[in-house]
Design a protein that fits this description.
The chain has helices at residues 13-22, 36-42, 60-68, 77-82, 85-91, 100-107, 109-118, 156-166, 211-214, 219-225, 246-263, 305-311, 317-330; strands spanning 4-8, 26-32, 47-51, 71-73, 126-127, 137-145, 148-153, 175-178, 183-192, 197-210, 231-238, 270-280, 283-290. It is of the alpha+beta class. The chain folds into three domains: 4-97, Rossmann fold; 109-122 and 182-219 and 235-330, ATP-grasp fold, B domain (D-amino Acid Aminotransferase, Chain A, domain 1), CATH 3.30.470.20; 126-178, ATP-grasp fold, A domain (Dna Ligase, domain 1, 2-Layer Sandwich), CATH 3.30.1490.20. The strands form three sheets. Strands 11-10-9-12-13 form a five-stranded antiparallel beta sheet. Strands 3-2-1-4 form a four-stranded parallel beta sheet. A four-stranded antiparallel beta sheet has the order 5-8-6-7. A hairpin with a 4-residue loop joins strand 9 and strand 10. Helix 1 packs across helix 13. It is globular.
């Protein structure tokens, strides 16, 4: 089989490369020069293409190199956050595993909310102005991602006070969302266009600075410290849901897939994550989605409890992607899984 799987050296590259090799496909790494030593330590890439940054993926010589190796690019979060995604979707001519237009929708908060509402999924209230706020909110500054650029305000007055203290203009493209109190849950799904089926391959929670460490400090001391919580993700924690909750999450995931087919043809392809808050086991609110592999799947390079039920040992999300590519090649259905 001449097809190769390519990805950029960041985020979830290690498991994507490992998954490709486990499925008998060539593994190609677009590797930042500054990280060459890191990726060479793991000896997973069959081919190494050195680049300076994500923008270099748009270079004609890089794309020609990928095309010569019959590469399919597996996108991940670094591509979403570190490049003009609209330009990337338009100018990157190499086949991408998944629906490239969904990457644009993921990066646009209004489109993202539209898609979730189309699916009939409950989402937190959003406010177009600080003056509308009547409850605790989480505020995401322009360019916020990976937990960076977020802060919480207890209400309208607290929000205005914090914005003034930060020197942020109130009309500066803020995304103000109701802060829902509950347990954050991040289930990792895979939609197979070949099987027309949604699979659950894992669940995680995120460990964030410094909000998670603040929980170890008594409340009285927190007040004296006057520390502003931050939400930058530094790692992930595996989670197994109550079995009675799985049906609800599958229902959300399947409705999401159907909404993508309606609004963003050809719809969802491959991995996605529903980012949710559980107020109670039967009360779930979805505040985000990711329409590609998420870093939380790195927990399960040798498989999760859920992937084990489906495939036995060793089925990571990276390998599941490679498996879908291999099956599509064998059945001459590549057009169903790449755009």
């Amino acid at each position: 089989m001449n097809i190769s799987v390519a990805t950029y050296g960041s985020h979830s590259a290690l498991q994507i490369l490992k998954g490709a090799k486990d499925e008998g496909l060539r593994a190609v790494l677009l590797c930042p020069r500054s990280r060459r030593r890191l990726y060479e330590r793991f000896r997973l890439a069959d081919e190494l293409i050195l680049v300076e940054n994500v923008e270099d993926l748009l270079r004609e010589d890089v794309q020609r190199n990928l095309t010569s190796m019959s590469s399919i690019l597996v996108p991940h979060g670094t591509i979403i956050s570190d490049v003009d995604i609209k330009r990337f979707v338009k100018d990157f001519k190499v086949p991408i595993f998944g629906n490239r237009e969904l990457l644009v929708w993921e990066s646009d908060r209004e489109l993202k909310e539209m898609l979730l509402r189309e699916a009939g999924i409950e989402v937190p209230r959003a406010f177009s102005s600080p003056d509308e706020v009547d409850c605790p909110v989480i505020v995401k500054l322009p360019g916020a991602e990976g937990g960076r650029g977020y802060f919480v305000a207890s209400g309208r007055d607290d929000l205005i006070k914090k914005l003034r203290k930060m020197g942020v203009r109130m009309n500066r493209g803020l995304y103000i969302q109701e802060y829902v109190i509950g347990v954050t849950v991040y289930p990792h799904f895979f939609y197979s266009p070949l099987r027309e089926e949604v699979e659950l391959l894992g669940v995680d929670r995120r460990y964030e600075t410094n909000v998670d460490s603040l929980g170890r400090i008594p409340a009285s001391d927190q007040l004296n410290l006057n520390v502003q919580p931050t939400y930058e993700v530094v790692g992930n924690i595996p989670l197994v849901l109550r079995e009675s909750m799985l049906e609800k999450f599958f229902d959300i995931a399947e409705r999401f897939v159907e909404a993508t087919k309606k609004l963003v043809s050809p719809g969802m392809i491959g991995p996605f994550c529903i980012e949710a808050i559980c107020r109670a086991p039967d009360d779930i609110v979805v505040f985000e989605f990711s329409a590609r592999i998420v870093a939380g799947t790195n927990l399960f390079i040798n498989g999760s409890p859920y992937s084990y039920l489906l495939y036995g040992e060793g089925m990571s999300m990276g390998r599941r992607i490679a498996k879908e590519i291999r099956l599509a090649c064998e059945t001459s259905e590549l057009e169903k899984i790449v755009t």
